[in-house]
Fold this sequence. Notes:
- By secondary structure, the protein is of the alpha/beta class.
- It has eleven helices and eight strands.
- Strands 1-2-3-4-5-6-7-8 form an eight-stranded parallel beta barrel, surrounded by six helices.
- The protein is globular, with a radius of gyration of 20 Å.
- The model has no long low-confidence stretch (mean pLDDT 97).
- The chain binds 3-methyl-2-oxobutanoic acid.
- Residues 25, 44, 46-48, 86, 183, 206, 216, 218 line the site of 3-methyl-2-oxobutanoic acid (KIV).
Amino acid sequence: MTETRVTTSTLMDMKREGEKIAVLTAYDFLTARFLDEAGIDMIIVGDSVSMVFAGHETTLPVTMDEMLYHTKAVSRGCRRPLIIGDMPFLSYQTCVEDAIRNSGRFLQEGGAQAVKLEGGTEMADTISRVVERGIPVMGHIGLTPQSIHKFGGYKVQGNTEDSAQYLLSSAKILEQAGVFSMVLEKIPAHLAREITQAVSVPTIGIGAGVHCDGQVLVTQDMLGIFDLFQPKFVRRYADLAESMKAAFQEYIKDVKGGAYPSEEESY
Ligand code: KIV
């Protein structure tokens, strides 16, 4: 496997050439290593860590320092995929200075090559100021989980004329602001196709149909580790929750029955 890092211009080339971009999340060294060995193009150190790793009900509680801890672990595990640090709630919404400082920390301390932040037209000024400082930004529109309390649930976005227009114009404005790519989350497939055709930067869909330039899933969802709920768009490629529970039960049985450790496993 080549160790040349995927860059923002690699991704632009992939869009131009019609090569789909495969993206997954990671929060730790080993998962990042396995993703790299499997050939993933980008890793998002997502604020979903708050839910699927730390057990919170939303993405809101995770802090900058916690995100940096996970980003450092991921960047120690991989060489080829582009690593994107996900800006946590209140690390960029407060003012442009916070956005620049905190996004810079992902690159300087975390070892990421880019950051992601949520929001449409209202975030364009912040994004262009961060990009001007040399920090690549990925946009994120549609269902933006940091606004869960405004939306009143994890609902499909862009299914009225007004909200579809807002998302289409947001995508174009984010492109002008300088994003190198954007996540489209939980929007109708036809709208994702329209946005994908309207912008020159790659769109990465999650619950946004097949027409996006790439796809992302939360790794714990696609591995079947996170078993508390399964959105319709999640395809499970393994059932690790069941495998883990079976292994734990077997270990407990062996310990209690004296079958572990054996003589070969002893000194
Ligand atoms: O937090 C996250 O994991 C994300 C990706 C799924 C896009 O935002």
